[in-house]
Amino acid sequence: MKAIQFSEYGEPDVLKMVDIEEPHPGRGQVRVAVKAAGVNALDWKLRSGIMHDFMPVSFPSGVGFEASGIVDEIGEGVSGVSVGDAVFGIGSNTMAENAILTSWAHKPEDMSFEIAAGLPVVVETATRILDQVGSKAGETLLVSGAAGGVGTAVIQFARHRGMTVIGTASEGKHDYLRKLGAIPTVYGAGLAERVRELAPQGVDAALDLAGSGIIPELIELVGDAARVLSISDFTASEYGAQFSPDAQPHPERVFAETARLYSEGSFQLHLEKTFPLTQVGEAQTLSREGHVTGKLVVSVS
Ligand SMILES: NC(=O)c1ccc[n+]([C@@H]2O[C@H](COP(=O)([O-])OP(=O)(O)OC[C@H]3O[C@@H](n4cnc5c(N)ncnc54)[C@H](OP(=O)(O)O)[C@@H]3O)[C@@H](O)[C@H]2O)c1
């Protein structure tokens, strides 16, 4: 099968389209004929080598952690899914014609394969960090970096949980945040004053998605370091805030819930751009620039 791989750290030109043996699912896994795969910042971080001390790569390495597709092989011990079913989920080396998924849900008919491919990582992350930071109806949540993939999912789940959400993004994305249900403000100097004006009652919890070095400011705003959480600032715990690195064990429940909300019309995912499999490097370059709205997706077949 055709797959995207890299055999050394470097710029996007280390990414190659190669012909390799098809993978086969192990216990509790399925294999899909991939229709589309989601792009995540982790993809370029691993490829560039900047994550080497935390997550070293074994070469040659595939690319991609999420996909949608048609189930074409089923591993031992798997029930509730058949060959031919359309699914989406989390797995490994998903930028390829076939990929293994370790957790999945059925894709609703009214959801495109591209949207489905962009959902798994962001909905897993969003629901995990909302649980970890605490999310009660009636509370106010501040989200730094709210217009990207994770932010798009966080805003919507937090609103479903009855929270008021203040989200930061550059000015041109404020309508996008409003449509998702958040109160927008810009990031950068003066953030604390702007947030105090928008939330005179105070902010109960804060999520740092962008990793822009603002943990102390968020702790000051919330008044309780335990209710500040980052997914991209490794220094968060030095200040007493939480850092959340690991996926929840059974995200398939969240995938199914997302599918239900999507079909009801109460969850959406904006795709900024869809790339062909030959342009994974271009997709990673756009992701690395750091200003994606919603998600980027690679269409495989
Ligand atoms: N630990 C985990 O489990 C986990 C899971 C998923 C993702 N992550 C990490 O979390 C980060 C966010 O992921 P993502 O998928 O949401 O990324 P993304 O889609 O690439 O996020 C891009 C967004 O970041 C915003 N942004 C850029 N600079 C900013 C700043 N200084 N302050 C506030 N917002 C800023 C941009 O808004 P503007 O265009 O308006 O600037 C853009 O909309 C990535 O670093 C990713 O690797 C970690």
Automatic annotation (TrEMBL):
<dbReference type="Pfam" id="PF13602">
    <property type="entry name" value="ADH_zinc_N_2"/>
</dbReference>
<keyword id="KW-0963">Cytoplasm</keyword>
<dbReference type="InterPro" id="IPR002364">
    <property type="entry name" value="Quin_OxRdtase/zeta-crystal_CS"/>
</dbReference>
<comment type="subunit">
    <text>Homotetramer.</text>
</comment>
<dbReference type="InterPro" id="IPR013154">
    <property type="entry name" value="ADH-like_N"/>
</dbReference>
<feature type="domain" description="Enoyl reductase (ER)">
    <location>
        <begin position="10"/>
        <end position="298"/>
    </location>
</feature>
<dbReference type="Pfam" id="PF08240">
    <property type="entry name" value="ADH_N"/>
</dbReference>
<dbReference type="InterPro" id="IPR051603">
    <property type="entry name" value="Zinc-ADH_QOR/CCCR"/>
</dbReference>
<dbReference type="GO" id="GO:0016491">
    <property type="term" value="F:oxidoreductase activity"/>
</dbReference>
<dbReference type="InterPro" id="IPR011032">
    <property type="entry name" value="GroES-like_sf"/>
</dbReference>
<keyword id="KW-0521">NADP</keyword>
<dbReference type="InterPro" id="IPR020843">
    <property type="entry name" value="ER"/>
</dbReference>
<protein>
    <submittedName>
        <fullName>NADP-dependent oxidoreductase</fullName>
    </submittedName>
</protein>
<dbReference type="InterPro" id="IPR036291">
    <property type="entry name" value="NAD(P)-bd_dom_sf"/>
</dbReference>
<dbReference type="GO" id="GO:0008270">
    <property type="term" value="F:zinc ion binding"/>
</dbReference>
<dbReference type="GO" id="GO:0005737">
    <property type="term" value="C:cytoplasm"/>
</dbReference>
<dbReference type="GO" id="GO:0003723">
    <property type="term" value="F:RNA binding"/>
</dbReference>
<keyword id="KW-0694">RNA-binding</keyword>
